[in-house]
Structures are given as C-alpha cells and as structure tokens.
Please model this.
Amino acid sequence: MSLLPEVRALLDRALAGTTDPTVRAAIGDARRRLGEPLRVALAGKVKAGKSTLLNALVGEGLAPTDAGECTRIVTWYADGPTYAVTAHLRDGGTRPLPFHRAGGAVRITLDRPADQVDHLEVRVPSARLRRHTLIDTPGIASLSTEVSLRTTAFLDADADRPAQTDAVIYLLRHMHAHDIRFLESFHGDDLAGGTPVNTVGVLSRADEIGGARLDAMAAAARVAARYAADDRLRRLCPVVVPVAGLLGAAGATLREDEFRTLAAVATLPMADVVELLLTADRFAGSAPERRAALGRLGLFGVRLSVRLIREQKVHDSADLAAALTAHSGIDRLREVFAAQFVGRSEVLKARSALAVLDEFLDPDSAPAAEAERIRASAHEFVELRLLHLLRSGRLPGTQAQLAEMDSLLGGAGGAAYLRLGLPADASPEQITAAAREALMRWQTLAEHPFSAKELRTAARAVTRSCEGLLAAIS
Amino acid sequence: MATDLLAELAGARRLAVAHDRGDLAGRLDRAAAELGRGDVTVAVVGEFKQGKSTLVNALLRTDVCPVDPDVVTAVPTVLRYGREPTVTLQVPSDDGALEPVTVPFDQLSRYVTEAAPAAGARAPRSVEVRLDRRLLGAGLSLVDTPGVGGLDSAQGNLTLGALAGAAAALFVTDASQELTAPEVAFLRRVLERCPAAYCVVTKTDLHGEWRRIVELNAGHLAAAGLDVPVLAVSSFLRLRAQARDSTELNTESGYPRLVELLRRDVLDAARAGARTAARAELAFVVAQLRERVAAEQAAASSPAAAVTLVQRYAEKQRRTRTLGSWQTVLGDGIQDLTADVDHDLRERLRTMLRAGEELLNESDPRDTWQDFQAWAAREASAAAVDNLMLLARRSDELAQAVATRFDLEYEGLELDLPSPEPGLGKVSELDVDFHRSGMQQFLGAFTAARITYGGFYMLGAIGALFNVFIAAPIGLIAGLTLGRRLVKQERERQVQQRRQQARTELRRYVDDVSFHVGRDSREAVRRTQRLLRDEFTARAAAVERSTAEAASAVREAAALPDDQRAARARQLAAQRAELDRLA
Model:
C-alpha cells in the first residue's frame, strides 16, 4: 500500500476509536488535509518582502504591499472557483468578508478587531495555487535571543511536530552571519514548523544589495553562497536562493503602458538617461507614470529595463517581462520549490498527519503504534529522516559521501535524474547504469567493516533508494 | 568668544605671576591648553549594511573607509585631523596593552574589514586614520563603528561602551525600511550615554519612498519619547557632487545640513562645556588673588581696622591648617563606591549565569552552542558596560560630594571669625569668601566617564574570551529501525552530558569576565581617587597659601607709614579693579 492511503486508513481507525470531540476534530482536520494542496508558509522578519514574493509566485498582484509594515494577519491564498474571502475566527467560527480589488490587490475590510481573527482565507481561481496553498504571515519584528535559542530546538533529529503548514519558505534580508538575530529569521511560530527537509531559504530584496547597481544580482548570489556555506544555516535550510521579488512580481504582471513608459525613457539621449536614473527621486518626479513604474519595479528594475531596451535585448513588453522574470531569480526558486516540496508533497503531508496523531493519542494505543510502524517502515520516511540527520550534521562520512547521499536520498528532488546527478534528458539506460553503480558503491560501504556504524546503517538506506530507482525503471 | 576668554586667562596669568603665584599661573596654563585641545568625538553607529562607512567617506569626501556590498567593517576606525595622512593600528600585545603600529595608507582595507586578518597577525583593536579635512581640523573626530553582529550583540554593547566618551552619535539606518524595534531600543540606550544623537536616513537616492520612511521614523521616535532629530542623506549624491564639483548635487545630497549640524550643534555645544570649565578656573584664580588684594587694601585704607584684620587672618590661617574633612568624604566614598560597583558586577554576572543555565537546560548545546556563545558574549559585555556606567555615575556623584564638602568647609572658615568693627566702610567688602559657583563648575571639567573608560574599547577583550567549541558527538541513527523511545533515552543521556560540559564552560567564562572587568574597574577607581585627591589637595594648598599671604600682607600694610600706605591703597584699588574686570 502506498503511503497516503495507508495514513488515511490509519486516521480513519483512530477517528473511530475515540469519542473525545477535540481529538476527533483534530484528526478529522488532519484527514481532510491529506486531500488538500500542500500548505506552504512564507515566513521571515518584518519588511522582508513576503507579500511581494507571494505575488511573484502566484503571478498576480494579490497581496497588498506597501513601504511601511503591511501584512498584519495571517492570510491563506488558495485556489477556488471564484474570488472569495473568509475570516476564520479564534472562537472557531468562520464568516465571509467583503473585499474589493485595488490595482489587482485584494483589499479586505475587517468587521471586527484583528485579534479576534485567527486567519483570513482568500480563494482565487489560479492554476498556480492548485498544487499548493500559500500562506502570507506578518513579519517577526523583534525577538529575544532566548527565543532564538529555543527555536533551534526544532533541529532535533525527528522533530515531527504537528504544524499547520507542511513546508516553509524563509525570507532573509541581507544580514551578517554573526548577527544574534540571524537565525531568528528562521523562527516561525506554531504556524511555520520548519525543518531542514521542508524548508527553502530566500535571500529577499536581492536587487537592493550593493546600491541597486546593475551587478546587484551577482552580489546577491555571492551573499547567498556565503549563507549556504554557513554550517548553522545549512542545518536549517539546505538551499538559499537570491530573489528580487519586486522584479518577479513585475515580470508576471507587466503592462503594455509600463513598457511604453520605459521604452520612451530608453530613447532619450544617454546623458539624460543617466541623469534621470541617478536617483529614485529624479525618476519618480519627472512624470506620474514614471513614478508608478518605479513603485512597481524598484530603481534596480527600472535601470535594468531601460538598459535592456537600449541595448535592444528586448523589443516588446512580453520580452521585457520574460527578462525581468529571468533576472528576478524566481524561476530558480520555483525549481527548488518543485524539487523540495511538490515532489515530496505526499510524504510531507503524511508527516504532518502523523504528527497530529502523536500529539493527540496515547503513545501506547494501537493507532500510535501503527503510526510508529509507518514511520519506521515507509522508505519515504526513512529517506526524509536520514536527510534530516544528514543536514543536521549528525552523520559521519566524507564531504563527497555526504553530498552523494544527500542527492541519492532525493535532497535535490525526487526525480531519478536528480537523485543520480544526471542531466534532465538522461536516457533510461544511463539512469540504470548510474543507479547500478551507486548501488554497488553504497552496498560496499554498508558492508565494509571499517565504516562507522551510523554510516553503515545510512548506507543500507541509500541502497534501498537505489533499488527503488532501478525498480521504477524496469 | 574663545579668543576673549584666552585673553582673560592671559590677563589673570600676568597678575598671578606679578603676585608671585606660580601655582595659580600653572592652573591657568592648563585651562588654556584644555580649551584649545578639545577633541570632539562623534560616533557613527547602526545596524549592519546601513551605509555607515559610506557616510563617513561622504562626510569627509574621501574613500578611506572600505566599502563593499557584502564584506563589513570589523574594527572601529577613528578619523582625526592630521596634516599628513597616516594609518595607525592599535594592536594588542601579549600582556594586553595596546601597541601602535603604522601601516601604509592604501593598506587600510586589509586591516579593518572582516575578511582581513592576515594569517598569524594579531587583529587590531582599533585603527586611527589621520586626514587633512576642514571638518576634522575644526576639532571633530569621527568613529566608524563595526556593524558586525547587529546592535543587540557583544559588539553592539562595546559600541555603546565607547559612546561614553563621545559628544554625539549619528545613528545610521537606510531608507529601505522604517526603524525596527531593536533599532529604537538601541537608540534609547545611546541617549543614556551620549548627550546628543541624530538619526540619519541613508540611501535616499535608491528609495523613492524615503520621505515616507523619514516621516515614519520621526513618528516612531516621537512615540518612544526620544528626542532624536531625523535627517535624510544620500552619500552617493555627495560623492558624485564632489566628482563633478557641483554645489547643487551637494545640496540635494542632504549633507550640508548634516555638516552644519555637526559644526553648530555638536562642536559648539562641546566647546561651550570646555569654556565653562575654563571660566570656572579663571574665577577660582581671581578669587584667590583678590583675597590678598582686598585684605591688604582694607588694612591700607583704614589702619584702625588693621588689628582686627591681623587677628582675623591669623585665626583663619590656623583653621585652614586643620581642615581636610573632604578627605574623609573622599576616602569613605571610594570605599563605598568600590563595594557597590563590585557587588553590582557580581550580581549582574550571577543573574547572567542563572539565565544561561536555564537556557542550557532548555536546549541541546550541540545545536545551540554557537548561538549560546554569542548570547554569553552579549550578556557579559552588557554586564560590563552597564557596570562601568554605574562606576562612572557613582564617580560623578562622589566628585560632587567631595566638592560640596570642600565648599562648605572653606566657606565655613569665615563664619564665626571676629567681625570687623562696624562703620569701617571698606571692610565690609572684605568678605571674599570661597567662590562657590566656581567650585561647582569644576565638575563640568571632571568627566568621570572619560576617566572611567580610559580610552576606546577597553572591553574589547571580552568577546575574545569565549572560544571553546563543544564537539558535536555523532547522533544515533538507529532510530531508522529501532523504536524511537529507546533512541530518545540514549539521546537524552547525551544531551545531559553536553549540558554539563556547557555549564562548566559558562562558569569558567563568567569567572574570566569577572576577573577582567573587576581588574579594569579597580584600575578606574584608583584613577578616579588619585585625580580627585590631587585636584582638591592642590586647591586646598592654593587657598592656604592665599590666606597666609593675605595675613602677612595685612601685617605689612598696617606697619607702613601713613603716606606710603595711601599710595599703596591706590595701587591696590587699581589691582582690585583689574581683578573685578576679569571675574
């Protein structure tokens, strides 16, 4: 039996075996969630650019954004037949809310104090939201170090804590790694229980690094690489992708008139262009439509667009939109996102459901024992846990061994070619050959008397992954 | 204004020399030197990557502070006036004392940025750069502080500690976002230590919404009850203005306002303090000179009173010798102060230790050790900095107490002396008592903070004490196949073991901190005591000498023949008039 039906059956049994209404409600919820899209939270400090990134990911200017602090209530954006907003109240009730759309953004009118609202749910007909629900969170403004020290407790080797979300995208601003708050960016709350297997880091507002010069994205890539090399950070999230959310959002929603505004600037004499793009003030002050374009693209986006148009690299708004998207890094984020979350959504969802059982059931009851058995036997879980250990730095082995183990276990994505480190167009023969070779290597390691005990155990699990790859091909 | 004061000091000095009072002339020399020296420090502080170094560069129109999109300043850089550009590193030697090392000018970035420390070389504690710039020449010195580790870290605390000697702080935050809660909290602590702070919003060229941000920031500061003016600048435009020699761009950059503010509000305010102190010294010296002149004048103009006067001064002289209860105040005060400061430090460290142990009990040191070290360094430096602030405050209070006592004593001198006979007009002017206000103003020149902190980054060593690494034992991965609960037990045991190890390390660290800070603070107490004792002893000697000389002058004047006495009286009246003009 594959993982999801097995977990679903277990939840049904657990539901039948209890009469406690809170437990029933919790398990019922968990059961429903198995059928719903993966829940992905966007978390990070205040003004990290969470709403902007959400807009870029959905490809629509849904979430309102502003220069000052903006998002104050947790808001879910999910696929639905029509636009609709529902408030989920703290007392458990739900009610529809009126809203209007201002320039694409869904502006919601609250009919009660914000502290009575647990979260808002915005339904949007969107293909992009069909596979995962995105959750926009208010920023974490200031936290004490004590919290940060406690947060790292979620590194504990099998932190299968129940959480409302299945995966997390953490947004970091450019920060110093010695910053005592550095890791706090990774502190969610109950909502965002991130672990190294369900977390992707984003270096946000990448276009602002180094003074919005045209090499900003290159500087951002350097910073992201430095982050990814930081041991502590690697244990929290294995990948950090630099993303200019503003560029991504603009690329997704660029309008013809905006392109014309930028194209008109690009035709001015060079000296005038330089003068105009010197400061945000000059550009915004020269015409109302330019001010609007600046608000949408940011100074870096405007500079980049004008340069691309001048150099005839782009010729119309579609070209420019594509170029902006390419520069934003959003595509790379989507790739990572797909590999880390979407490909693994079954096991992530199953994991969330089992965590609910752990919380609500007596550890000696039959369903709890069954949950334990699923965790220990389902190979997806073994892979996930092993990845977790690996990334937490708890496995012995050489750098090369660990890196190979990470990808064979599906760390870069579940597809066979990703696991084997082959190009996307690798033939079945190539895959078979590579998988066989890996299988041999890891089998030797698993049986080698000098291998550390932990490494041997891990190597056995890796051979199972390799066998799985071979089985899938034949 | 300063020149008038210098002329007055010179005038008083001439009189002092004429009266053969070398001791008083020496005091005036020192006051005049102090007035001219006045090095006014402005610290540039703020979060990582807000443009602090760029601001210093733009302000001084230089490129001496290294700027990079990712690498950060790691060492405080002091910029002072110097005709020849030089760079001097303060490198700690084996015994902890700082040694100056001069390096080539273009090598600066090798030493002050984070990536820098050359292999084997000791990292400098601070760097001094001398540059020929008008703003520096006016007596300003700028300190570019490191943004490493954020405001609420060990480094942030050390920056706060260094602020005690600064006349003002420029708090730098960029226009990409409004002030955050930690930034406001830091500003609040800045204001506790530094007479003035300004919030400078940088990078206005990059952010179209900067006016909103300035407005929001002003709102946040007002809401927090902080009196901090907000300015907006663009360093990019300022540097471009320099390259193009354009006044217009310079004005647009917002820097002229900042320069004006530094010159007018900061420099002048700091100068006013120095002038007040010099004036107080002048008043003291004039009072000393006047005592003798007035007494002699009284004796010369009315010989009938001479007998009383001779008696009066003999008595006063006798009493002066028995005075000195201010010494008791000083001695007792120092003892109390030492005990209190010591207790305070111990209490702070004990609290820290307790909090640290609680934290360790809640987490696994293997995962949190690195953060825990940062936490411990932050708490320890906060404890040390706050403890030093207490020491500075208490030293100030003690100086006050000693000064008050000194005043009371010397004022009380005259209280029940035989009063001159009524009807002797001139004699009523004789009550040249000790210049009280002058005495109190001496405290303006006594900056306990400067004595206490003894220079920049005395605390620099604290961060470096804690470098132990707790090895992370390999976790069991038997959990893959074994029951989770069994694994949990084993893991729990390992965690306990690591916690124990971490607690031992923490205690050792706290002991080290206690030792270092305790030693520094005892040193500071000794400096304070020596300074107060020397200062008041010198004053007491000056007063005693004035009294003795007045006594003998009265005797001599009374003994003069009539015609000579009248001439002497005229002479003295002239001298008196001159003294009155001075103070």
Remarks:
- Chain A touches chain B through 68 residues (CB under 8 Å).
- Chain A is about 50% helix and 10% strand.
